[in-house]
# Entry
Amino acid sequence: MGEFDLITRYFTRPAKRAVLGVGDDCALWQIQPGMQLAVSSDMLVEGRHFLSTVPPKRLGHKALAVNLSDLAASGAKPVAFTLALAMPRIDESWLQGFSAGLLALADLHQCELVGGDTTQGPLTICITVMGEVPPGDALLRQSAQVGDDIYISGSVGDARLALEVMRGQLSLSASDFESCRQRMEQPEPRVALGLALRGVANACIDVSDGLAGDLGHVLKASQVGAVLTTDWVQDSAAISAAMQSLPFARRLDMALAGGDDYELLFTAAPEQSDAVQHAANEANVSVTCIGRITTGSGLQVLDLQGVPMSRRFASYDHFAN
Amino acid sequence: MGEFDLITRYFTRPAKRAVLGVGDDCALWQIQPGMQLAVSSDMLVEGRHFLSTVPPKRLGHKALAVNLSDLAASGAKPVAFTLALAMPRIDESWLQGFSAGLLALADLHQCELVGGDTTQGPLTICITVMGEVPPGDALLRQSAQVGDDIYISGSVGDARLALEVMRGQLSLSASDFESCRQRMEQPEPRVALGLALRGVANACIDVSDGLAGDLGHVLKASQVGAVLTTDWVQDSAAISAAMQSLPFARRLDMALAGGDDYELLFTAAPEQSDAVQHAANEANVSVTCIGRITTGSGLQVLDLQGVPMSRRFASYDHFAN
# Structure
């Protein structure tokens, strides 16, 4: 099978909303009148973003999920994506699994694969996802306001916990490991929550490099500071049963600096708290208030007694780790 | 320097047309009312699409050029692009050259870098480019008509010729090599020609994998056949001075199956020949008529005596070569 056959077999389906899909120099489609286009690209490299042992179907899911998570953080509705794929060789069984996982998630979000590229090379996946958002409705990093409550969706720390177990640095019960591994390998992008938070949240970002570090991007862009509490790391919907099995200090690391969570971290005015809960119910995901936006700059993390901690929770840097 | 600093230093510039540029989860912009969006992704891998010795400035140029060439082939006007970049390590001198070459070509075509991703990994560049085209005006592969003349823009074969010299399989005068190397390392996407061919050409494709192979994609998509002449390989604007120094048979290989040309191959009704020349003049590039679309299927190449050749000119396959 050659390059063009594999594109036809695994990645070409009849165009749905697209005017022209896979198979020409460009894909073509018509944006809804008046809408703004939201675009994001992510590149996943074997050994850095995923292990060589991950089942291809889960990898296909994750490759699109991390991109949809960026749209979610912007409050944009997914419409289409392109896939560029470098592979060491053509492995049909791998391609079958990968495309099945990828396209199942795409279908779930009605996000159409419209084009891309395949080539020989070290296993690398680059997806560019496009979405639509009404002008002025996009959720940005730069709009956090002093006094805003800070929320996190779902739960954090599980993906990192799974990684530590795989590295042999921790052990978990089989069922706890399986649930964490699921979070690491098949994150669920919070698209519905992002849409429901339009007009409710002030600022939003998706947590991919670690909660504290990603919150830092919001603070910098909004020119504000923040205080994070930690009682929610003790006991809340944001901490899974698997995480509960860890000592508190370890749990704090995983929750605030674990990475690969793909949850939404957002801020909203205190008077929006009912609207935030309503959005969460609508999107069928929990949200937990974890702190407050302040004047000044930088992030202060309070311990369980409310005393500022001296420790730093670093963001994941792809060139430093 | 970390990941976020390098993005700020080398790839972040104030948004021009974009509503929101580099630095948030998504970039945002507003499509011109009524326009269709054209999108294409290309991934370039070191050792396969470029040599490790290529000056980074030229590589930055080429990475965007091959994507703009896809927009040109669709008759779309470039508006924005994303860049995803995997690098083994942060090399500031490399980044400076790469971004300078990339952004100079972007400025030339008023195509704005709006977002992307950087990570550690084997040197891999993935660009997704977006353009605008009025509904119905896009040039497609599937619209070639029986009786159409087939044209090629500029000249073909030079990039492959440069590669053969680099591989030590051919030799050229220093000045001929320099001009071929320029064609290989800094192709000029035929954006202006693509725009001028709207309403004039019936079908269009950019030649990246070899003229005969890429013409084959047009024939398949349009369900037609074609006859190519070869007298133009003997002597025409489509064959450079460097190519003229080769024996005819070698020249034929380079011209029809060389690859990396980034010229436009298009078809137009014979009565459009004046309009084709007018478009070429407007875009300041030569065009050469090289054959005709026929009924049936497949490609027939005629020798200088007009006799069908038995040789095949294969398309470049990234997994077979």
User: Anything to note?
Assistant: Chain A has two domains: 3-133, 141-301.
